[in-house]
C-alpha cells in the first residue's frame, strides 16, 4: 500500500458505475447537454423560490414602518423617519461587516463574476448570508439600491451549491452559475430573455450552445415561479409608445451621447480612490448615510429601488426638479455608496436614473420641436436602455430588456441607435469596460477573457486524461512488476517517501527492462533508479477544468499532472494522468 491507499494493481473502474458517477462523467465533457438541462431546470426552481422568499422578506419588513407595507413608499413617510432610515441602514450594515475580512464582505454581481473567474464558480456560504442581510437592510433603509444584485448573487450561489453538493466538475459549476444569474434576473424583472443574455454577456462573458440551453431553461423556470406568485406583469408598468417621426433620430443620438457621458462618469466616480480607502470605515459609511438623508429630506424619490418613481416618470410627468434629482442625485448616491464600500446593487438605480435623464432630453426636444417630437416617454425608455447598456457595456442585454418590458418591437430601431451610441461614448470617452469589470480591475483582478482559457474552461479533466494508470511503490519485486504490467498500463505513478509528490514513469520502460537480458538476474527494481522516462508530477483535482490544469502545469513548471479525488476522509486516490500535450492537442483539434 502506498500513501494513497492503492493496491499494486491496475486501476480498473467497475463495469457497472453508479448512476451519479455516470452523471458526473458525462458532465465532464462538452457533450453534456441533457444533464445540464436537467440541472438548469432545478436551478431555475431554486432561484425562483429564493426570489419569492427575498421579496416576501422585504414586504414583511416593510409592514413594520412603511405605509401600507409598501417597501417603496418613502414619499409617504414622515420627513424625520425617512431621513433617519439611511443612517440606521449604514449603521446596521457597518456593524455586520465590521469584524469580517474584506473577502467575506464581497457580494452582488461583481462577487459572482470574481468567483466564476478565479474560483470556478464556488460561492462561499458566508458571503451568501451577508447578501441576505445587506440586501434587505439597504432596500428597507432607503439607500439607493436595487434588488437585482441580491437576486443574481442568491441565485448563482444556490445553483453553485447544487453542483458542489453533487460534486460535479467545475465546467458544470460555471454553467450552473450562469443558470442562477439568468433565473435571478428573470424572476426579478419578469424578463426571461434579458436574463439569458445578461448571464451570457455580463457574467459568463461567452456564448456557447452548451451554456445557452441550460441557461434558457433556468431563466424560463425562474420566471414561471415568480409569475405563479406575483403574476405575469413586469417589475413596473410601461405604457405603449410609438416613435412619432424619423426626425427624432438625430435628437435620440444627442440624448445617447449625453447618457454615455453620464454613464462613463458614474463608472469612474464609483471606483474607490486611494484617499477614500484611507478613511476609516465608520467615516465612509456615515458619509453615505448623511448624503442620502440630506437629499431625501427634499426628494425621497432617490431612495430605495425607485420603481414607483420610474412608473410615475413613464405614465405621468414629474416636476422638473424631481427629474433632475432622480437623474443625477440617485446616480451620485449609488456611486458614492459603492466608492465608500457600502455594497449596494446598481441595476435598479441606473434604470431609474436613465429614464429620468431620457425624459429631461425628451422634454427639451418637445420644447424645441413641438410638432415633430415624440412623447417624452419614448425618450424615457430609450434613456433607460442606453444607461443600462453603457454602464454595464452590455448592449444586447439592454435591448432585450427594453423589448421585454415594452412588448413593442417598433421601439428596437431607435433603441439600437441609442444603446450603441451610449455604449461607444462611455467606452471611448472614459475607457470604460463595464462597471463590474472596471471594479475588478481596480482591485487588481483581471477577468478571464482569453480565448484559450475560455475554451479550456468548458471541459473537465476527466474528458482528456489518460485512465490507463497503475500505482506502485518505489521498490518492486519481479513478481510484483509482472503482476503490475499484466494490466497493460500506459503510466506508472511511483510513490515516494516523506510525503513527496509521486513521480510518473512510462510503463513501457519497465516492460522493456524486464525483457532485457542484462536485467534477467535482478529480483528487485527501484523504479526511481532504473533506466526509463520519468517526469515530475503535480496534483490536480478530478473536478477541475482544463484551464485549471493548464495553470497548474505552469505554476509547478511540469508537463504532467496526476488526477486525484477523495474517496473517503483523508483518503485520496489517483484516477489518471493528464499531460500538457494532451491539453494542447485537445485545443487544436476542437
Automatic annotation (TrEMBL):
The keyword Cell division does not apply. Signal peptide: none annotated. This is Chloride channel protein. It comes from the Bacteria. Keywords: Chloride, Chloride channel, Ion channel, Ion transport, Membrane, Transmembrane, Transmembrane helix, Transport. It is found in: Membrane. Gene3D superfamilies: Clc chloride channel. Its main location: membrane. GO terms for cellular component: chloride channel complex. The chain crosses the membrane at residues 33-57, 77-98, 125-145, 175-199, 211-230, 250-270, 282-300, 320-339, 346-366, 378-403, 410-430. It is a multi-pass membrane protein.
